[in-house]
Amino acid sequence: MTDNAKSNEQEQKRPIFDIARIYNKDISLEVPNAPEVFKTLDKWTPEVKLDLDLKSEDLGENFYESTLRITVTVTNEEKVAFLCEVSQSAIVHVENIPLEQALNIIAPTFTFPYAREVISSLVNKASFPPLNLAPINFEALYIQRKQQEEAAKAEEKA
After folding, report:
1. Is the peptide bond before 98 cis (omega within 30 degrees of 0)?
2. What pTM was estimated for this model as a whole?
3. Which of 41, 65, 91, 111 is deepest in the core (most CB within 10 A)?
């Protein structure tokens, strides 16, 4: 094999993860109990519920859309203060990387900071106290989900 052929083969097997675009796919902020909820801000003891969802779509030619949806529901004194939902998407080019890991670990690791900033900005503009979401370890979440799936399969066989 010639050096040029070896170089081409190595180039073809090189891992590729490129972000073509990051964008907001959907943004929503609801304050269902306004203006009454603002009367209780002096007794602000919020309960924060965070839900995450990941979806992906094959766009062809090794391009994928990866969407991270974050829903934050904050209650204060047992009433919903606000509900914020952000779907942050990325179009990514993936080759020679396990696809499931690229779409469930790498892509949301890149899109999360954007979604976190949008949520923080929306909450601020709605005149609530600051909400800064902690970083999320998507690799740990992925491993945990895989372990749960394996446990469920083992339970079905038993």
Report:
1. no
2. 0.86
3. 111
Read off the DSSP letter of residue 35.
T
Closest CA relative to residue 141, chosen from 106, 115, 105, 89: 105
Alpha helix segments (H runs only) across the chain? 3-13, 99-101, 107-125, 138-157
At residue 85's C-alpha, the angle toward residues 82 and 91, to 5°, is 160
Identity of the residue numbered 67: T
Pick the CATH number of 14-153 from 3.10.420.10, 3.40.50.720, 3.40.190.10, 3.30.200.20: 3.10.420.10
The full set of domain ranges for the chain reads 14-153
Q: State the average pLDDT for the chain.
A: 92
Round to whole Å and give the CA distance between 66 and 119.
19
Give Cα separations from 69 to 21, 119, 121, 152 (angstroms): 17, 11, 16, 25
Say which residues have a Cβ less than 8 Å from residue 19's Cβ, sequence separation at least 6: 90, 91, 92, 93, 110
